[in-house]
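Figure caption, in words: inputs first, then the predicted bound structure.
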Amino acid sequence: MISSKIEKALNQQVLLEAESSQIYLAMASWAEVGGLSGIAEFLFTHSDEERMHMLKLLKFINERGGHGIVPTLKAPPLKYKGIKELFQEVLDHEIHVSAEINKLVESCLKEKDYTTHNFLQWYVSEQIEEEALARKIMDKLKLIGDDKAGMYIFDRDIASLAGGGTAKGKPAE
Ligand code: OFO
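Bound structure (hydroxy diiron-OXO moiety present):
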């Protein structure tokens, strides 16, 4: 059984994962409309994975005697300044998510909730991968700069940047 404090904190994380899914979905749609089909595909997949992260939390809360709350989401932005800005936002967002996961882990230790602490370890590793991937993408984009041919190749090959884990075309467990 989880304490109401942990239940509330986990539901906050449900909201954050749902927001992540929503934001990446909006980014995917913007990229698709702009003809960047590789980037769009990558972001659609990423959005699906965030939904899986949300579901996994929601089900855990229910399993542990709490109530997983389906949150109200605010509308994500419609447009982005450019590809570099978009992926910088992805990186910043993932850094924020990692910080929130770490806070949750800390709360579990304080509450002596070792079951939830154990459950959250999957998210801790997931965040290491997601941040690393977003950084790798930003490094590539910095190298490409304003080169249109480089951007064409980036859009074509972005799926191959993803190596095993998340946003790599395979759903999270
Ligand atoms: Fe759920 O990993 Fe990104 O946000």
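The chain has one domain: 4-161.
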